[in-house]
Amino acid sequence: MKSRAWWRQRVNFVIFLGPAILLTVFFFVVPVLIDIAVSFTDLGRSLRVTRFTTEHYERVFGGDRRLTDVMALTFIYVLGTLALFNVTFGLVLALITTSIDKVSGGFFRGVWLLPRMSPSVLYILLWVWVVNPSQYGLLNQILMTVFGLEQPLDLLTTAPIALIIISNGFIGASMGMIIFTSAIRGIPEHLFHAARVDGAGSLAIVWYITLPALRWPISFITIYQALSLLVSFEYILLLTKGGPFYDTTVYALYIYRRAFQSGQYGYGAALSLFLIVIGIAVALLGWRFFDMKRLLQNPRIEVQ
Amino acid sequence: MTIFKTGTTALVTAALLGGAATGILTAAPALAQETVQLEIWSRQDVSGPLRAGNVVKAADMLNAALEEEGSDVRVEVVVRESPAQGFDDDALALLRAFGIGEGPDMFIAAHEWICAFQQDGFALKLDDYIEKYPEHFGTIFPSLWDSTRCPDGIYGIPQDAEARMFFYNKKLLREAGFDEDFITAMPERTLAGDLTMDEVIDIAKQVVDNTDAEYGILHRPNVGPDFSMVFGAYGNDFVDPETGNLLINREDLTAAFGWFERAVNEGVIPANNTSMDWDAIRADFYANENSAFWKYGIWDLGSYAFPTFGLPDDEEGFFADWGWIAVPAAEKGGQPSTLTHPIIYGVAADTEHPDLVVRLLGYASDAELNTDHAVTTTHIGIRPEQLEDPRYQEAWPLARATQLLEIAKYLPNEPQFADLNRILYTAIQGVESGRLTAEDAAEFVIDEAEGNLDNVIIE
């Protein structure tokens, strides 16, 4: 006969961990297993499997000449969006909105949250209108009427990569902004006062007090957003469709184009599996590089 | 107590029996007449709402015929509309629906997809049915059946045809300095093989150089069949006549991409044509006098030019300021062409009522109903008797476009052609936006075709 405590422990396990385990299994583990299985089949546009094959992996590792360019572009896109917006601009927004009065700071943070709160299709439709290459696009209307530009700009053709970085960055910056703001708010205020008394200027305060305190949030945002940028493609698909040509086809969109536009589901699954591997590698590298282990270890001093 | 119980039971039993008997009596006629639901898959498409609409109407005709025959079966048509943007996306969605066993009884598709359905065993072979019902299919233009043919037989019923061309704006050509004789002779010169593809670029360039028009030639901004006309002009038929497999000739392909490259370099086709809006393109050609040529198809007149942009819909009024030419030959003395891209009805291989479906589609292909579709959307009919219909005769664009059918080509009915077409479009985008040279584009197409398609012959 098991003891009451033994049963309670089991029941608690099921109640508290059960739902999370089920969700993880059904929505993370099972899809990966299905993906692995599909990647070894010839599943094509009519969703039928006629044979098992490894040829998709042969294509991933050498047969697909487009893949190198796609990966290089993905690297530029992820690094560019992270460096310019998700981390740097998010940090700038957090620093500025915490150094002005609370109401204005809250207002500006609210404004920068709008892109994240709007439905993605609506957000991108606005972008499509802004960068419309004719004289009717918002940007061109401003440039032509206010600044006297003669010919409308066509950023979709001339600067598509910059465009996808900016449109994604405007959304991505808000996540960093929120996390960094709360971290800045968590810094004990007396440190700032003490620094002021010691004669430190604003930049010195940011450099010697704020930034060191943001080390972990910055590390976390960098890894988290890198992974999220690696797999996101919906804004790019809606704005440039991955073009012109393959100019803005990042890896995740490339999978979509192969699997859903050409009906090569088997190859798409192999490409996806490779993306999962890339994602894990990026996460582990980030973990190592930022020494995330230290963040998660138990505190050495227990404050009672 | 027992008596009461027995009595109650008897009453209840009698009531039940009586009820059942009444039920049987009232249900008798309903049981005798069986209503069969037939589902048709159709893409939401303003350029052809009657493709499905005529099938719905045909149900009444078939039901009347069934009643006359003394049959107890009646049909009811259910339309399953797909929101796909084009026929390619629609066909892919339908293949998936069939693949998971959720396919309809019949479907509407672009003809070049039919062998993809046939290859996967989703389409019913129709030769025997066509022979069985000459009253429905006997007078359909024999040449149209070629568009529904796969290697072992016929798998679709032609629903319409059309012609594609370069429309041109005569006002802009006059303004650019071309005289009236030159302008009116263009269609004839094209048909005679005298006007060439390069001359189209030259004419367009003069318009761009000498008028306020920004563009010389505009084409559709997404993947579609009309680009194959340009490839065709340069000898790309994309099918090996001996094996029926896809065929790519590097030299011919480079020559065709060269035409796009020259057009962009001369400032005639805008480098961003593939990222422009449909609406903006049409407005630029029909309303804003901003382009000399618009490469598209005859149905655009009925669908947009007349109703939306107010172009004169009488023949004389239209040809006073507008015109069209077939797709010219690549070199003088060569063969001009047009593309006709029939839409077809297909029957699902696993439908439980193949005979009823085929008869239903037979009635939907009736001359009267098909003429409704033809005259309201400027598509060409499928039977000679439609030509006698006064409504058809009044729709002058149809008669004029029918003249082009003599030089019409089809897209290849090869199951993978749609995939190749998408690759070709991506390459055109690469050339026009300056990412690829004509040679690079041909190399790209060959590379993609070899990597993604089966049994492609490269020359």
Automatic annotation (TrEMBL), chain B:
What is the annotated localization of this protein? Periplasm
What InterPro entries does its record include? Bact_solute-bd_prot1, SBP
Q: Which domain of life is it from?
A: Bacteria
Q: Which UniProt keywords apply?
A: Periplasm, Signal, Transport
Q: Which residues form the signal peptide?
A: 1-32
Signal is among the record's keywords: yes
Please tell me where this protein is predominantly located: periplasm
The record's function comment reads: Part of the ABC transporter complex UgpBAEC involved in sn-glycerol-3-phosphate (G3P) import. Binds G3P.
Family designation: Belongs to the bacterial solute-binding protein 1 family.
Q: How does it assemble?
A: The complex is composed of two ATP-binding proteins (UgpC), two transmembrane proteins (UgpA and UgpE) and a solute-binding protein (UgpB).
Q: Please state what the protein is called.
A: sn-glycerol-3-phosphate-binding periplasmic protein UgpB
Query: What lineage, starting at the top, does this entry show?
Result: Bacteria, Pseudomonadati, Pseudomonadota, Alphaproteobacteria, Hyphomicrobiales
